[in-house]
């Protein structure tokens, strides 16, 4: 018997938030094709807001805030091609001041402060999918 082809099934917004909270890192992208995706070392959900510790892009001067960003997290089993993906889109601001110290402690920041951004995304949409081989 042949195995069913993998397919994406949408999950509820609550399930997408739960999947997002179950992982630690993903990719930050935006609509500017001149800039590559930015790896995120750690994220957390805090009172409905998404907080990211991300590598500072080069050149950082081209990455101004606030701006619309998209963040994607996934866990895919490469052997059987099952898993999930969550995509968060919203307006992002850079975290500074006392909030920066707070989130640096919570997200396990490194000593290379100059190479990191701490960002807060106000989610406008959180979309999740399961990649499954289950029968219809």
Features:
single chain; 136 residues; mainly beta; Pnp Oxidase, Chain A; six-stranded antiparallel barrel; 7 strands; Split_barrel_FMN-bd; Pyridoxamine 5'-phosphate oxidase family protein
Spans with pLDDT under 50 lasting ≥5 residues? none
Euclidean distance between termini CA atoms: 16 Å
How many H/I helices?
A: 2
Count of individual domains? 1
Structural class: mainly beta
- Please tell me how large the radius of gyration is: 16 Å
- CATH class, anyone? Mainly Beta
In this structure, how is the largest beta sheet organized?
A: 6 strands, antiparallel, barrel
The total count of strands amounts to 7
Secondary structure layout:
Blueprint: E1 7-11, H1 13-21, E2 27-29, E3 38-46, E4 49-55, E5 67-77, E6 82-94, H2 97-106, E7 116-132
Antiparallel strand pairs: 1-7, 2-3, 2-5, 3-4, 4-7, 5-6, 6-7
